[in-house]
Q: What sequence folds into this?
């Protein structure tokens, strides 16, 4: 029998919300069995914050689910290490150069410092590394070549050592955001500059002033690329024309993504077929902002909240919905995550001695797995997917409380947690046979509880209490029940 491909899978077809069409559409890969996916990555000039976490986790889950459904995913996410000016305009200081002056470092030292800081934070959140992670400074040649194409086709012009995209030359400008060019107020989003033909034209290449450190030779003189051109050049280089999915935060829809489309298509290249955008997050009901004083870096947050709990809170909210961060939300997320984790731990504990017999739990597990798949197929609806895991947990806990559960049913439940909650949502760690830390910890704890029971039977209560106290210090609670001692992690 031929194994099912993503296109012939018995599961529901994947439907996603396409920002360009402003509606849900069925996803069809340009090349059967393969997906090319591009995500606008960070500008590495400061520590990552909660906004980065929202975006990175959202698209990490989308990538994971596409992989789960059998697609070979090439996931490209760029690093902006030059050209992103303060205020996203065409004037002002480069964000990295400004931070370099503040920290008295070379600009590339700043980029390296915060790149690795970002990668460390993402690793703690369980975000998979991109297949390719290109940097803007490593692709100056490709950006210059794309600019030259635009000049040759009459969609860009040189002025005073800089090069600008002529928005009036491209009627499609505004089709993603729905903004009509004539309705855009001059000088609001892009700074008015005398050398521009139209104030709404945006920079492709900027002339470097004498004090500007990051600079390269070009056909128009010494300068540096504009912010928007890098993503058009690098996505086309590594994914080719007409690639499948382009993602990013909703705040990038205009002008950044609008500019990307205009640059690529005006140069004659078919661009992304589907556009996906994640919504923002709020803290205490307000949008996160440095000016409001509610700005939180991930490093500060991880000092008091388990990164896995942060991830659980993020996947509990749909990527197109606003996510609320508050102490109450973290408390609820912690409780929910522990409920799932404890159920998985108890399954691991029971499996070695589970009897080989049919069990009605197996059919219930299959139903919850299908509910999870249906949720994720519907625009990656993670709240419904998490609800399916909670419903699974309710049935698992009920079965475990009733007595012995068949090995096949426990194995199916374990697979559901690890494959759906772990590999797709990134909430649990799966491991190769013989390398399962959860099983190892469970075995060691059995030995510890046997030692504690020996102390109790020998009336060595002080030693028994001391052992229980030491376990408590490392977050392990021991409960004495009529069926014997049981343990669980507190956090």
A:
């Amino acid at each position: 029998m031929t194994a099912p491909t993503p296109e012939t899978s018995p599961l529901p077809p994947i439907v996603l919300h396409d920002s360009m069409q402003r509606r849900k559409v069925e996803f069809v890969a340009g090349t059967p069995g393969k997906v090319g996916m591009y995500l606008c990555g960070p500008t590495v000039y400061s520590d990552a914050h909660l906004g980065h976490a929202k975006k990175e986790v959202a698209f990490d889950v989308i990538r994971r689910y596409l992989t789960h459904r059998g697609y070979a995913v090439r996931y490209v996410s760029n690093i902006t290490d030059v050209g992103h000016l303060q205020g996203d305009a065409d004037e002002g200081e480069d964000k990295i150069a400004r931070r370099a002056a503040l920290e008295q470092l070379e600009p590339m030292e700043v980029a390296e410092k915060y790149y690795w800081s970002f990668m460390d934070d993402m690793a703690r959140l369980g975000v998979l590394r991109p297949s390719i992670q290109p940097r803007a400074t490593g692709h100056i040649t490709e950006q210059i070549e794309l600019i030259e194409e635009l000049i040759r086709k009459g969609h860009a012009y040189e002025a005073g050592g800089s090069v600008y995209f002529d928005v009036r030359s491209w009627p499609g400008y505004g089709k993603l955001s729905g903004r009509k060019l004539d309705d855009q107020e001059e000088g609001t989003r892009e700074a008015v500059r005398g050398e521009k033909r139209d104030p709404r034209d945006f920079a492709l290449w900027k002339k470097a002033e004498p004090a500007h450190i990051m600079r390269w030779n070009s056909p128009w003189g010494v300068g540096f690329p504009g912010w928007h051109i890098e993503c058009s050049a690098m996505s086309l280089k590594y994914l080719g024309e007409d690639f499948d999915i382009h993602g990013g935060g909703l705040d990038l829809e205009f002008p950044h993504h609008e500019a990307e489309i205009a640059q690529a298509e005006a140069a004659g290249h078919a661009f992304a077929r589907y556009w996906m955008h994640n919504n923002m997050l709020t803290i205490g009901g307000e949008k996160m902002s440095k000016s409001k004083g509610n700005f939180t870096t991930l490093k500060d947050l991880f000092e008091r909240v388990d990164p896995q709990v942060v991830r659980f809170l993020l996947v509990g909210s749909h990527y197109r919905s606003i996510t609320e961060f508050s102490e109450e939300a973290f408390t609820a997320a912690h409780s929910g995550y522990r409920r799932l984790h404890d159920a998985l731990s108890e399954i691991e504990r029971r499996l070695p001695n589970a009897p080989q017999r049919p069990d009605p739990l197996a059919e219930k597990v299959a139903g919850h797995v299908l509910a999870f798949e249906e949720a994720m197929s519907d625009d990656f609806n993670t709240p419904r997917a998490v609800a399916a895991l909670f419903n699974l947990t309710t049935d698992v806990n009920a079965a475990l409380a009733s007595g012995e559960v068949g090995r096949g049913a426990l194995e199916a439940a374990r697979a559901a947690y690890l494959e759906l909650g772990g590999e797709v949502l990134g909430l649990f760690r799966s491991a190769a046979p013989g390398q399962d830390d959860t099983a190892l910890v469970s075995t060691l704890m059995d030995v510890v509880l046997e030692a504690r029971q020996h102390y109790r039977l020998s009336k060595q209560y002080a030693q028994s209490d001391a052992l229980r106290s030491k376990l408590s210090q490392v977050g392990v609670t021991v409960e004495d029940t009529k069926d014997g001692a049981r343990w669980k992690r507190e956090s």
